[in-house]
Design brief:
By secondary structure, the protein is α/β, with parallel strands linked by helices. The protein folds into 2 domains: 1-21 and 365-455, Arc Repressor Mutant, subunit A, CATH 1.10.10; 29-326, tm_1862 like domain (pyruvate-formate lyase- activating enzyme, Alpha-Beta Horseshoe). It is 38% helix and 20% strand. It has 16 helices and 19 strands. α13 (367-382) runs antiparallel to α15.
Length: 455
């Protein structure tokens, strides 16, 4: 079957699998605080000394709304909100510390948003210093943050570098003026060049640029121009994401343009194929779904050594078992369960100030969930999985293999006696392959569209 017809056949709504089960399929009853604490402590006791823990801090404030964004954010120009929010996050962290028998070993710390660089440098220093005073640093720790090219200053970069940050990711999306206006993200190449060069001069060892294909009004020529400019700055990593058009989830924020303005199907795929061709041609290597890196970057090295990991932060070089999410809407992962914080700023702060973990929903994984989760992680991170070991077999495995047969007939997966391999030419369809394992999705197909398109 020709590639264009495969795209038409498999371009269906599907999860991005930053978790399994995916959030829409978490148990309706949620998770009790007692169960969350129990699995959190179990995971900590199993993994703290050797692997350490990860911490994600959600900094939700943005001065303006980007209409492509599906993140939980709080639009405001009131910078007096910064300090009270930081104090609340540190109070939440104290609630977790009180549950632990010893100091946590911190291996990974990431600041996401929202716009972390909305915050003044001195406030970010107070936040990170307050957290670091209560942990032991892992010998291979890695700190990273997301920076907006329009408001990231040399002071931001230097302050965080002095605190141990060596990775920074800048959201670029597209350099075309018409596209930028449509998504309300106006930023110049000059701004991106400045922050990239500042970071490199200060000593950051991994600089990433985030690009998006499938944005409104985007053309192949736009992609060529954006990738050329990106390559000129030579970031260590490039995320090349598919625009997820989910206005039914995020409402008016993704209605700054009409549906007909968005590239679709083969037109959209041509954008990706052109971008990918250019990146590979300039020495970048495909390392996981939607990600490219230089061979000198740690992301490529962990991909090559089959130690790449994936969680709610996306791909990561650190295979930690326990990830604590701090801040409004942040999601925590104990491996055995998920817990999401209150999505409302007011509700989040009220709960923490009452000395209560601000959990609004979650999911306690079953034994079957844990096995499926491992297979999906293997496919997403390594493009292969195995069921040779008995602990990776599950009741419905035969049915999964039957569902994979059509994908195999179309050349998108190679099924062996004890596992499967995703060929390089089929990596665009990795979400479809994972969907064959997703028993919760298979057994309870949604009546309405929950997810963005897979291809």
């Amino acid at each position: 079957m020709r590639k264009t017809s495969l795209l038409q056949k498999y371009n269906v709504p599907g999860p991005r699998y930053t978790s399994y089960p995916t959030v829409p399929y978490w148990d309706e009853k949620g998770i009790s605080t007692k169960d969350w604490i129990q699995t959190f402590q179990r995971s900590f006791n199993e993994s703290n000394i050797e692997k350490g823990i990860s911490i994600y801090i959600h900094l939700p404030f943005c001065e303006s709304l980007c209409t492509f964004c599906a993140c939980h954010k709080y639009i405001t120009k009131r910078h007096e909100l910064e300090l009270p929010y930081i104090k609340t996050v540190l109070k939440e962290w104290k609630l977790y510390l009180d549950l632990l028998p010893e100091k946590p070993v911190l291996r990974e710390l990431h600041l996401g948003g929202g716009t972390p660089t909305f915050f003044e440098s001195e406030n970010l220093h107070s936040l990170i210093k307050g957290l670091l005073d209560s942990v032991v640093l892992h010998k291979e720790y890695e700190f990273s943050f997301e920076g907006h090219p329009n408001n990231t200053t040399e002071e931001h970069l230097q302050t965080l570098y002095n605190l141990g940050f060596t990775r920074v990711s800048f959201g670029v999306q597209d350099y075309t003026e018409k596209v930028q206006k449509a998504i309300n993200r106006i930023q110049s190449f000059e701004n991106v060049k400045n922050v990239t060069e500042w970071a490199r001069d200060i000593g950051y060892t991994s600089i990433s640029h985030d690009l998006i294909f499938g944005l409104p009004f985007q053309t192949v020529n736009n992609i060529i121009d954006t990738v050329k400019k990106t390559i000129e700055l030579k970031p260590d990593r490039i995320s090349f994401y598919s625009y997820a058009h989910v206005p039914w989830v995020k409402g008016v924020g993704q209605r700054g343009f009409v549906d007909d303005d968005i590239p679709k199907n083969n037109q959209k795929r041509k954008l990706y194929e052109m971008g990918k061709y250019m990146l590979l041609n300039f020495g970048y290597i495909e390392t996981g779904m939607d990600h490219f890196s230089l061979p000198t970057d740690s992301l490529f090295k962990t991909f090559e050594s089959a130690s790449l990991h994936r969680n709610f932060m996306g791909y990561t070089t650190n295979d930690t078992q326990l990830m604590i999410g701090l801040g409004m809407s942040a999601i925590s992962d104990s491996w055995y369960s998920f817990a999401q914080n209150e999505k409302s700023l007011t509700a989040y702060q009220e709960q923490v100030n009452k000395k209560q973990l601000p959990i609004i929903k979650g999911h306690l994984l079953s034994d079957e969930d844990l096995i499926i989760r491992r297979h999906i992680l293997n496919i997403m991170c390594h493009f292969e999985t195995s069921w040779l070991d008995s602990d990776l077999k599950f009741k419905d495995l035969t049915q999964v293999i039957v569902r994979l047969k059509e994908l195999e007939d179309d050349g998108l997966v190679l099924i062996t006696k004890n596992g499967l391999i995703v060929p390089k030419i089929a990596r665009a369809f990795v979400r479809n392959i994972c969907m064959a394992f997703d028993l919760r999705l298979v057994k309870n197909k949604p009546n309405t569209q929950l997810f963005s398109m897979t291809v």
